[in-house]
Specification:
Number of strands: 9
Order of helices and strands: EHEHEHEEHEHEHEHHEHHHHH
Radius of gyration: 21 Å
CATH topology of the largest domain: Spore Coat Polysaccharide Biosynthesis Protein SpsA, Chain A
Number of helices: 13
CATH superfamily of the largest domain: Spore Coat Polysaccharide Biosynthesis Protein SpsA, Chain A
Strand content: 15-25%
Structural class: alpha/beta
Number of domains: 2
Helix content: 40-55%
Largest sheet: 9 strands, mixed
Length: about 325
Amino acid sequence: MPRVAVVIPCYNRAHCIADAVQSALDQTRPPERIVVVNDGSTDPSNQVLAGFGKRITVIDQPNAGVAAARNTGVAAADDCDLIAFLDSDDVWDPGKLERQLPLHDRADVVLSASNWAWADRPDEPEYERLGIGPAGVGDEPALATLLRFEGHGFWLPTWIVRRDALCRVGGFDPRMKRVEDTRVLFRLSFEGCFAICEQVGTLRSSQVDSVQLTDTASAAYQADYVPATIEVLLETYARAWRLESALQQRLRRFAAYYLLSHAKLLAAAGDRAGARRRAREALAFGAAGRHRLQALVLWLVPGAYVRLSSRRSIQ
């Protein structure tokens, strides 16, 4: 039977960390270890965690960010085969591990993910909204699942990952402000299969506070998210010679979409040279249809694109 560790990063979550930890302790198939990494909290998080005594392992470290905190937890769980991730403001259904772990009976499964829902909408599973399912190991390659324009839904607090595979791909990149989990997913897609558990296993917090990202549609967020995603996609494309042609083409379309999105952001910010460069790259990756038209305008006359888009002429 594989040994499972739960890794929970925590930064200033005294108000909610107890619920997260308790949901891990309440599993019908208990994990062998629960590791909470207190990432330099300045609130009473440590006092709350101390109340759990020896039932959990608490590691204190100077604030280094969530990626580094997760890496610390994974390193500490060196006696376990599988790592299950949980965020400090979310909770698991009691049967999550019991339902999801059998998916790892197949040796080629490197990652499994369970369905999830927002805490204030528990009867609206996200996989149904995205058209994902059924349970089990998908028929398509793992990378194909990630390259769904509708979204793949593999939210990190639903993951169970083989520790050896996670270590092989380098864990989470602490220098990335965004999409460090996406990089791990794309790298893991070359290591084996992904599996899906269609029952809801995680309830995602509906509360937003100063620690959380407040607006994923904001220009500031997009300015970090889009180029970081491009970095991940171009890294993946460098390995695309190993992929079947249809999957290569899907990856090119995905990259073209994000390159064009970055060109738009740069043009709006007044960086015309950067906008031209990204638009040219989007064209090289095969931007088609209206996206090709937008890329051509951004390449040739980025200032005109900004003026036109403000009037919603070519959106």
